Amino acid sequence: MAVNTTEILSIAVKSIYELSQNFIGWRYECKSNKQLDGQLVVITGANTGIGKETARDLAKRGAKIIIGCRDESRANEAINDIKREIPLADIMAIKLDLSSLKSIRKFAETLANNYQSIAILINNAGVVMEEHKLTDDGFEMTFGTNHLGHFLLTLLLLPLLQKAPKARVVNVSSYLYTVGTINFDDINGLNNPYNGTVAYCNSKLANNLFTWELAKRLGPDSTVTTYAVHPGGVRTDIHRNRTSNIQRKLIGLFGLIFCINAKSGAQTSIYCAVDERLDNETGGYYEEYKCTSNRRLTEQVVVITGANTGIGKETARDLAKRGAKVIIGCRDEWKAADAIKEIKAMNPKADITALKLDLSSLKSVREFAQQLTDKYQAIDVLINNAGVTMNKCMETKDGFEMTLGINHLGHFLLTMLLLPLLRKSPKARVVNVSSFAHVFGDIDFDDINSYRKSYVPFDRYAQSKLANILFTRELARRLGTDSSINTYAVHPGIVRTAISRSDFLINTIFMYLYENKWLKSAELGAQTSLYCAIDKAVDNETGFYYENCNRNDNLFAKAKDDETAHRLWELSAQLVKLEDQYNLPKNPN
């Protein structure tokens, strides 16, 4: 299979984002404290890398660990290393060569003869081959090891898994599955020139499909649940079969700079193995967390801007399910009506209404705020979600550069006008939807509206997203530590939404990437907004930045610059002509 240009582009977009997260250190950790006292966990390929770190973590939780490895000497070294840290670790190795069906059957038989049940099976082992090689049974080595070996092992161990009160199967896949294909006419790659990377991608697609099909065949009432995971770009020895010493050194150098360590790479495997929030999920693919709070918002008033589509609509849908009274502010009243109709079709009891709001018009912002003031006693949650990116320089009705005017200034004014209603809530939250793109932004105080230089759309978008974070930070500071209002800035992830609707090229690229599963759905993109809007874990946090339903403090200095935040506040108040009674003093009382 040849990888075409668009597939290379999709890999590049995902990889750049992935490696940027790794380089900056924006990675989450599994925070579950679940203990596995005496439960049997089987992990393949756990003598090094992700598998070894997974075994280390689960051993700390009291599990009885069996690692299946081809190289018994390296397996013993891994066990000794783990036991030096955890002397009481209950961990042993049994020989397993996934390239040999005979070895797999013998491994499974050994387990069946010695154990009553298995609580967790983690199919972690994987290889990447440079040259075309065959397994002992005549299969292409990558497909045979990464998929067929694990397929057989899992099915042979199902009787033991089904004897556990609740068992999990975790298949370690990769985001590269997206460019894989299953070539049923040439499954072993005998009829085409061999490409090791392509073979690896195909095997990772097989991991995902197996996870899904296994869950489907087990059925919804099964005590065995399945999960496919992407560990991230990790420094491991998976490229050990590269014959070129130069290639190995270059890969090693690249990994040292851009890839995460094995401990970080193990987090999603651990999450899917132990986290109780996944008890009722099966067959899915995981690389980031979801908001799993069960908090109700009965009769609470939630205001969301730009909620007629995308992230905003999914946020509104979720909060309506929680009993909130949701008001969506949208410029296009017809689209707002369609969104409400769709939400009510799934949730007939949804209490959701729309009010006209054009964030490119300060007059419209003021009218929207006045309508809310006239109708409601308090606002409990304000989610500043609306956003645009322009393909050419355009101005708002008040003469501001369009991207800055809508993404920052409109929301700045709206938030300040609604502060009196937010203060009347026992505990209110303001969530500003920002973006990872803020790292490329700078606040150009000398040319905030881009009048003096050539217009670069992405620069303007990045500036507006940096402004969102600085506003969140400064608002929290000015409100003070005793305020009943908390503020949060969120990065939703790279999501397929209508934000790029004004740029045909970007929209076309985003559409392709979404259709090929490189971009998050709007539902997944809404998760961090929901987390900051409702989760009790952030009740006592304010002014911070969040992604993947986790707080991230590793921001560039410019996103934490209090002086820049202060200057931006003063300039914003001046530009929107904010009345003194709505402004906040620089130093809170």
Description:
The protein has 589 residues and is α/β, with parallel strands linked by helices. Helices cover 43% and strands 13% of the residues. An eight-stranded mixed sheet has the order 10-9-8-11-12-13-14-15, sandwiched between helices. α11 (333-346) links the parallel β9 and β10.
What descriptive keywords fit this protein?
589 residues, alpha/beta, eight-stranded mixed β-sheet, seven-stranded parallel β-sheet, 18 helices, 15 strands
Structure annotation, total helices: 18
| Outline type | elongated
First-residue to last-residue Cα separation: 66 Å
Q: What would you report as the Rg, rounded to the nearest angstrom? A: 26 Å
State the helicity in percent bands: 40-55%
Structural class determined from secondary elements: alpha/beta
Number of strands: 15
Beta percentage is 5-15%
Q: List unreliable stretches of 5+ residues.
A: 21-27, 235-243, 251-258, 497-518
Chain-averaged pLDDT: 86
* Largest beta sheet: strand ordering: 10-9-8-11-12-13-14-15
* Major sheet size, sense and barrel closure: 8 strands, mixed
